[in-house]
Design brief:
Elements: E1 2-8, E2 13-19, E3 23-27, H1 33-42, E4 46-51, H2 63-69, E5 75-78, H3 82-96, E6 108-110, E7 115-118, E8 121-127, E9 136-140, E10 149-153, E11 156-157, E12 160-161, H4 171-186, E13 192-195
Parallel strand pairs: 3-4, 4-5, 5-6, 10-13
Antiparallel strand pairs: 1-2, 2-3, 7-8, 8-9, 9-10, 11-12
């Protein structure tokens, strides 16, 4: 599985493009779907699905361009964050002080333990509530370079953890989610963590 990282948007969101040479998955398209469509075309990749680690606007504003270019595109999000993606346009308008295109709703629900396939490769969904109720991480199998990836969204960063001062956040849930990720690391399930913002870390 090939992994590319793009840092997109005003909030410098990490967008991850995974492909097997033919099909691709996008994790968190941030707010530059046009750029991602250009990359898919340039690399001759077919977009299979978009996976959202959570529903915050800085992770999903690029959806409209992708959904327009790829009819019937699966947009996958944990159902507990549906309310956030519904509010994404208004939230972006508030925080960024500019007009924002509408954000398509998710059309497929992610659940804890679910397996997402890309050819022979797999990603396992791990529910990590706290920062948001429907936050998830995605765990990959071992790659050719012997790395195992954990896409942590905004739950865990190289130098900190997700904020829990929103009305819908829950600090105790975040601590439980962090313990879950710590155990995965201790048990050797991943070697490289890839967060929603900032640098990757071991």
């Amino acid at each position: 599985m090939n992994l590319q990282t793009f840092i997109l948007g005003d909030l410098q969101t990490n967008c991850y493009l995974l492909d097997n040479g033919q099909e691709a998955l996008i994790i968190d398209p941030a707010d530059d779907g046009d750029f991602l469509n250009e990359e898919l075309s340039r690399q001759n990749l077919s977009l299979k699905a978009v996976l959202l680690t959570h529903g915050h606007f800085d992770h999903c504003l690029g959806l409209l361009s992708l959904a327009t270019a790829w009819p019937k595109l699966p947009i996958m999000l944990h159902s507990a964050d549906n309310f956030l993606i519904t509010q994404a346009q208004n939230s972006a308008r508030h925080w960024m002080d500019r007009e924002i295109d509408p954000v398509p709703k998710a059309n497929q629900a992610l659940s804890d333990g679910q397996i997402i396939k890309l050819g022979k490769e797999t990603l396992k969904v791990i529910h990590t509530p706290g920062h948001t109720p429907g936050g998830i991480a995605l765990l990959s199998e071992k790659q050719d370079n012997d790395e195992t990836y954990l896409f942590t969204g905004d739950t865990l960063f190289a130098d900190g953890v997700g904020r829990t001062d929103f009305a819908y956040s829950n600090h105790q849930d975040l601590l439980k989610s962090l313990s879950k990720l710590k155990k995965l690391k201790k048990d050797g399930f991943y070697s490289l963590a890839l967060p929603g913002h900032g640098r990757s870390f071991y």
